[in-house]
Amino acid sequence: MTQGDKDQAKGTFHEVKGKVKEAVGRATNDSDLETDGIAEKIAGKIQKKIGQVEKVFEK
């Protein structure tokens, strides 16, 4: 597994984890948890894009 693939997988994991945190935060009226979820989701999207760019340059 290349570094680009690893970053994409980790990014997807963090994106999904962030979505879950965001949903739980909304359901429980916990604005801190919701904000953490949004931040983690965005960080996951960024990491996923970095992995895609790395994959292009590996070829």
**Overall mean confidence score, pLDDT:** 94
Q: Largest sheet at a glance?
A: none
First and last CA, distance: 14 Å
Number of helices: 2
Radius of gyration, whole Å? 13 Å
Order of helices and strands: HH
Integer count of domains: 1
**DSSP, total strands:** 0
| Approximate strand percentage | under 5%
Uncertain runs: none
Characteristics:
single chain; mainly alpha; about 60 residues
Describe this structure in words.
- With 59 residues, the chain is mostly helical.
- It has one domain (3-58).
- Helix content is 90%, strand content 0%.
- The chain contains two helices and no strands.
- The chain has helices at 3-27, 31-58.
- The protein starts with a helix and ends with a helix.
- The model has no long low-confidence stretch (mean pLDDT 94).
Provide a brief overview of the structure.
The chain has 59 residues and is mainly α. Helices cover 90% and strands 0% of the residues.
Secondary structure elements and pairings:
Layout: H1 3-27, H2 31-58
Helix pairs in contact: 1-2
